[in-house]
Amino acid sequence: MLKNFFSKIFSWYKRNYKINLYITAVLFLWQLVHLYWMATDVIALRLFGQELWHVGKVGNVIISFVDYTEIPALILGSIFYIGELGREFKWKYVLFLILLNSQWLHLFWITDEVVITQFTGTAVVILPAWLSWSAIMIDYLELPIIYDTFKKTFLSLRKSV
């Protein structure tokens, strides 16, 4: 029964490959906004003592929303690369799945809020600084996947024209 369920999902996914690719790429585009904010706000504050891009209260709400789009991006990205593995085995796709799914550790264990409170000295529980830096590095492990999905999107769009 479960095998039949997954078979139907991947059959649908293959028929709608391009739209799924485009949705995945758009979700990852949002992640670039989040990574830019992370670099210019959180990391800059820690390294230089000031934010290079202060987004304010409304901006922080928007960035939080953008950060939560990471969950569907991870799910759709994982489905996308499982599908790619089904079409053709490449170690690159296995690596991308590992990098993508390492994000769950960051999302549910060391969140951006934990990192910010650690870096600003307002944390209730003090964690080692390397743990916060590890969470940030995990966030940036998406970059190769973002590049790959954008590349596939542009190649797909070029073929359509």
Provide structural commentary.
The protein has one domain (9-160). The radius of gyration is 18 Å and the shape is elongated. It is mainly α. The chain has helices spanning 2-15, 17-48, 56-68, 70-87, 91-101, 103-108, 112-120, 129-140, 143-160. It has nine helices and no strands. Helix 2 packs antiparallel against helix 9, helix 4 (70-87) packs antiparallel against helix 5 and helix 7 packs across helix 8 (129-140). The model has no long low-confidence stretch (mean pLDDT 86). The longest helix is centred in the first third of the chain and has 32 residues, at 17-48.
Descriptive terms for the model:
161 residues, mainly alpha
Short description:
The chain is 83% helix and 0% strand.
- Radius of gyration (CA) equals 18 Å
Mean pLDDT: 86
Number of strands: 0
Please give the count of helices: 9
State the major sheet: none
Q: Give the SSE order as H and E letters.
A: HHHHHHHHH
Catalogue the unreliable spans: none
How many individual domains? 1
Dominant shape: elongated
Q: Roughly what percent helix? A: over 70%
Strand content: under 5%
Secondary-structure content class: mainly alpha
- Kindly, what is the distance between the CA atoms of the first and last residues, rounded to a whole number of angstroms? 41 Å
